[in-house]
Batch of 2 targets.
Target 1
Amino acid sequence: MSTQPLLSAQGLCKTFGGVKAVQQAGIEVAAGSITGLIGPNGAGKTTFFNLLSNFIRADSGQIELNGERIHHLQSHQIARLGMVRTFQVAKALSRMSVLENMMLGAKDRAGEKIWEVLLQPKLVQAQQRELKDKAMSILESVGLSAKANDYAGGLSGGQRKLLEIGRALMADPKLILLDEPAAGVNPRLIEDICGHILNWRKGGLTFLIIEHNMDVIMTLCDRVWVLAEGTNLVDGTPTKVQNDPRVIEAYLGID
Amino acid sequence: MVIYFVFLTISAATYALFSLGLNLQWGVTGLINFGHVAFMAIGAYSTVLLSMQGVPIPIAALIGAGLSALLGLIIGLSTLRLREDYLGIVTIGVSELVRLVAKNEAWLTKGTFGVQGYPIPFTCREAYSLNMLSITCPTNSQPEYAVKILLIVWLTVICGLALWRLWLWMRFSFREATPTELSRVVLGLICGIFVLTVYVCGALSLYTYDPRAGLMLLTLTTLMVVYIGLEKLVHSPWGRVLKAIREDEEVPRALGKNVFWYKLQAFMLGGAIAGISGAFYAWQFSVFPDNFEPLVTFNAWIIITIGGAGNNLGTVIGAAIFWGYYELTRTDFFKGIFNALHLDDTQQGAFRIMIIGLILMLLMVLRPQGILGKKEELTLGR
């Protein structure tokens, strides 16, 4: 291996009672790439995501982010190291405005501690103004700026996906894990989302994407990993994976 | 009449403080706390017992608040990692535990008979040793004329700020004549009149100097400081994280916020505020274990529901309405109505609570978001 991957995981296992959801699964995500993770329903993709971000603690296995071992860290600490995830069902914070949703994403700003709010109001205000500009420019780029002051709960499914990605961007991540960014989104908006993802990648971001929509995978991904029954099946370029008989078998079954 | 209004104001302000603590926990952060009264009990007992040992009253009250926060830390550490309904069960258990300990550990708390003869701010020793505020102090303990004027000026400032806040809230409603906006104007006017009445009665009793007027001023000052502090916090990035936790705690977690620590902070701060309200409760009413029954917690829940969850101003107005109702139905006019209905004293008490239930049901049907809550927030999908 010539360069060190941004994210690598080996031998991740997780059982829920008697169900082996993920067994000995691994992945490598090169810096600056868009990596896809596909697999039939129930293959354990989302569980695998939860293990990577430590929303669920793995039974065994190793995860390294930027060469640093992270599997012992809590999920919020992992996020602070620059790996931010989104959710399969986009989670908008309904009773907060779109802008507030965005501003929540920022990290290491003054005002998230009680004493800063009470003792350094000037600093907090200045940083919040700055943050608001940043949030507005991201909203602008994803076409949500007109909705900035609406409740996030009033957004459509596709807009929520965009909001969620935008919110993740506010945290200045190195790597964003996207769980089905195109699910339940109309084709027109899917194109938009793909365009944004390619743009952000040009800006230096890395993506790991779970997706069922093969068009999206073919358009975006440099490399694809296939998960079936909780374990790695194959990996390679999208075209190679698409034509691999084992993948077709896993998806369609075989007599 | 004047001093009666002063009494009403202290009661309402004490409950407002108490409910503001719960509002931070439930309304803002979404933590289900069914044992809020435990914090009040700890605050009341600590303040009273410490000040009887000669600890200066303000320091005793602050230690009381600190101990309440400590209780919050202990409950929080053990349950905040669990799902929220567990917190509800644990808190109601803890509040009963606190009450029963106070009832049984007589060496410390004087047991069922309650603590008597503890120091009360602005009250001379003769009066509080009998625990009867109605005894006026000897003339020599009356403050100087200049001090009285200063106190009245301070009351003017507080009431002025309250009216200004009400005005800010009402201001936008004059343009449109929709029923919601009109009801806001009407409510604002009623609250304004209430504030003015408080002001007039407070100023009069400060001038003739009744110790309760001093206590009222202290309660209102504390309420103002806590209210302003909470408003600042709730509308800060810190408050934003709390609201995000209320909406869906996985989101702030995925964005790098230490959700557990934030919940703990909200729980402890809310507890400390309730602890301070406990000190005022002790000075205003009395300290018996049975004062701190779970019903008190649910009164705070009623207040928050009336006012609108998550809204600090609504909580304060809710407390005023709650106490206004309670005291109004004790007047001779309502007594007359109740007597005409052939209700005896116990039945009257139950009847008054029944009506509160009825009002709450009507509120839930007609205005489920509470008086100051936002209707849109209830209709949003997850």
Target 2
Amino acid sequence: MSTRLATGGRLIDRTKPLGFRFNGKRLKGFAGDTLASALLGADQMLVGRSFKYHRPRGIIASGVEEPNALVGLGTGARFEPDQRTTTTELFDGAETSSQNHWPSLETDIGVLNNWAYRFLPAGFYYKTFMFPRAAWKHVFEPIVRQSAGLGKVPTERDADRYEHAYAFCDLLVVGGGVAGLSAALEAGRAGKRVIVWEQTAHWGGRSPVDGGQIDGMAPEDWVAGVLEQLAAMPNGSLRARCMAAGLYDHGYVLGYESVGDATPGDGRPRHRLWRVRAGQIVTATGAIERPLAFAGNDVPGVMLASAVRDYVVNWAVSPGDRTVIVTNNDDAYRTALVLLDAGLVVPAVLDARETPTGELIEAVRARGVRVLAGRGVAKVKGGKRVQGVQVCAQAGEGAVLEEIGCDCVAMSGGWSPVVHLWSHCGGKLLWDEANACFRPDPSRPPTGADGAAMVRAVGAANGALRLPEALADAGGPPAVAAAEGPMAPVWVMPQGAPPALRFKAFLDYQNDVKVSDVQLAAREGYESVEHTKRYTTLGMATDQGKLSNINGLAILSDALGQAIPVTGTTTFRPPYTPISFGAIAGEARGEIFQPLRRTPMHEWHEANGAHWEPVGLWRRPYSYPRAGEGLRDAVNREISNTRNSLGMLDASTLGKIVVKGPDAGKFLDMLYTNMMSTLPVGKCRYGLMCNENGFLMDDGVVVRLSEDSWLCHTTSGGADRIHGWMEDWLQCEWWDWKVYTANLTEQFAQVAIVGPNARKLLEKLGGMDVSKEALPFMTWAEGELGGFRARIFRISFSGELSYEIAVPASEGMAFWKACLAAGEEFGAMPYGTEALHVMRAEKGFIMIGDESDGTVIPQDLGLGWAISKKKEDYLGKRAQQRSFMDNPDRWQLVGLETLDGSVLPDGVYAVAEGHNPNGQRNVQGRVTSTYFSPTLGKGIAMGLVHRGPDRMGEVLDFPADAGKVFRARIVDPVFYDKDGEKQNV
Amino acid sequence: MSDAVSALEGRTSQGFATVQEAGLQGMVSLRCDLASKALAKALKELGLSLPAQRRVVAASGRSALWMSPDELLILVPYAEAAATVAALEKALVKEHALVVDVSDARAMFRVIGEKAEQVLTKLCPVDFDALAADEVRRTRAAQVAAALWRSDKDTFSVVCFRSVAGYVMGALEHSARPGSELVAPA
Amino acid sequence: MLTLTCPCCGMTVEETELAPGGEAHLKRFGPGSSDAEFEGYLFARKNPRGVHFERWRHAYGCGKWFLAARCTATLEVFGTYPAQTTEPPASIVAAIKARRPDWEGLK
């Protein structure tokens, strides 16, 4: 039985009872309880089943190291699996459920695994599921999936909110125990900006439970005083419930704060992820007690000795009436004293050491407790709850000397400093013989931006395990505590345990890894600790080397016949304990998952039924389907209307970069493949940009604004990239050239007015002469159009009479509406990007990203006319002189027309004779753009074909899905209005 | 132009700080040699002076912000922007300079209140303790570029690109939600 | 995640405010260069373990490119300097030598 004691409990408030449910059962706890203490207080020791064997498992620990007591917490949109009960604060109405069992916690069919577990040794999965290959997918995996997995994935969208926050400080202290507080106080007094994080809701670490005196005061009183001083400092910041999850380069630390876990639905963020830059970091992360490896050490009721006294002192919970203590050190005797003080029975202390002596041991003896020296546990009796222990000689092989009835076993194998954060960013460890643990090596710390140490470990985290030395290590005040004698390393109990006992001595509770598994791995040749970890799963999942690490390493070292430091540790990786995906995402969810770029006319498009297409981070209307109209029909309608009457396109996303200065012409001649310096003021010219590898990277119309300034249009997705590209060359290569650039993409809303009636619309708006004579094709003008400050560019991407008009973005919506109104009588209708794409394909215009893919040079696309032969140099010119670029065997742009008028699938390849060395059909071309052309009433396509332009009229085969072969003829890529008569009116 | 509207038309949201889209704001981007005498003279005529590195100089409704070693951002009332561009272009006609109106390319926000800094602390990797009262910080607000400065004791001005005004508003609103103050829990 | 000081505006900022630009101090080879020279310019990169020179752009700040000298193994930063130079300035070389006496210089 575990039960709530009638008095005591320093952290609970008995005046505030809280109700919660576990597997539907109504239970009670108090404010200040953790879920674990409340469950124990309600006699719920059995909390889950183990991962692999489905063995009954109980609560072992009282903190982050708890491997077993993970539950599903919450319901519906607030359900989350694998919540650690020992670190979850109890709140009223909490719904919890146990995991890894079917059909119920008490009766689990999966426990069969338990009976069969001699057949599920380390590497079982690797060995068993290899052959036949097909069996994995159809037989093994479905079965394994059914029983595997830690908890169940939530089925609803998370209802909670999360956020990030940045902070900066001179010193970040991780850990609000007495060592951490000492270090913080010292730095705070020195005027440093100090942040202190404590992962639990309470300050002082273990000291209020473990006792002693600090600066002549009870630890609790000293802690309260220091907190007051720190809180009063303007340069100090204290944050409880905030765990340092990871430590990274240059003093970057992630903190995981629980803000609203215990108050679901009250509007607060559930978690907050702190992103801190600290000049220095102190890790005062304490130490974790190690279990002992004896048979049955996983039976519910076997707990860490420190956890047993935490439950009694902090939460007034008795884990059992009769507790046998098993230890290899003095510290566990504190548990005996705490239990005795609470009026509970300690039938015996089994001390693996031959002659334990010391202050704490004598105190226990003096209370009439049997201290059995040189003794250990042969086996724990019981299934779902401890019923007793069989005592043996630690030096022997497990012969039972006596049986002691008990319902709780408090074990202590010594303490391991929490070195995770120290290790995350390269801090090295050394082996501490006296305490049989790894601790930070101060001569090999993690280093920061200046190459100096950026982390200092203090207190128990630094191997200073006892109160006086921990405080001295952290620069704290003098302290006194009961003197302790040396501990004795004990890795297996008894030391000569035969296979039958080793087989039930668990190292990693969460992954069901036993002493025998690690020994098997060593016998099978696993020498690297990293390999053994993966083979056996030791220390995997949420444990990450907290409870299992040192014991596992010791067993492996013993099996390999080498010292523990030679074996070394596995790599400590962030996060220290699991953190929520929500915290990682922060604010980036839903509407603000990523920046959505909107044009000034976005809302009109939305209100008028736009079907959206993402273009970079922009949303552009793909088409505007009307009620009852399919998408394809809408696109066809928009094209026909534009070709026959009048279309309007929101072209605001087009990149617009101004380039100005005495050297701007020279600069643009380097940037574009064609000559831009000779472009007359008032004229427009289509230009191509290549990278230094010679490949086409962007295109657009360049406009000569004045004697020393040009406006470069880029693709919608390319504006920022091209602006960056320009600045790169100006700043890093030609820094003596006098050129300034400015990205004005968003300054202007741009509307394309396209179609035979385009001029009529502009004339109706009035204010500017847009006649053929005043504003011929490929020119531009500035003025006031319909009362709007406007630049009109007479350019066309559709082959129709077309004007692109730029107005200030703030007036974009008004201008768009004015155009619609003016164009109504001429049949004006908006069209989207798909109509744009089809119309440009009908004209054989290439599209960056369709016809180009980073491996295509302009010459491949029949754009040789846009490459200046006169220029000595331009970006990409040298690359295009390489032999394989200047080669007629390249794939080149052609039009493709299916013999039956159908639409070619996108991206299909034209096959050639023969096969390549991999047995695949040889290919001789591929489709780059393909559409149904409503103008021509048939499918049209463009593609790159081996020596394509020389092969007009040839028919190629394009195999597609399901054995279908499309046959298409090579034709001129310009399908419509080959002489450009429509755009030149 | 009466038809001109700012990106969010002055949308306001009340959280533990007030988040407000500031409406139309005249902005002129100026690139030139900042040491030029012609520039000093031109700024003087606007009632301003050359801001030091990363500083803002404000006077009678206008401001000059140091944006980079060869770039200033001049804030004027929206209606004055075109005239300011013309005046600066004229003043710098003999210099190698680029003066452009960017009023319509940006959106401006004000975050107002005693805890305004906390709102921005959640989105920007900025050490606000180290930010001088007249300092401009160009940085990242969540996933987009932004510039921010203290326009008075409890008010921050934030400028971002116009197209992401909705995103920035959403991020600021999220960060200012009541209950999410960055006070240390008891 | 690194922090670097932009020499153009003086801000010390974290990596998320910067954009990386690869190896610094490359010499451009254009038309007229040999295949070997052009190949070296376009493709051959050092990727050393130890002292390295890199291009960074203060993309979310002043927009300027700058160069940084750092150790790829320890991430120690020896210094940052403006991009308008074809070789590391003497002060940066001295800072590196002080911390890495065995460093043989930029080759």
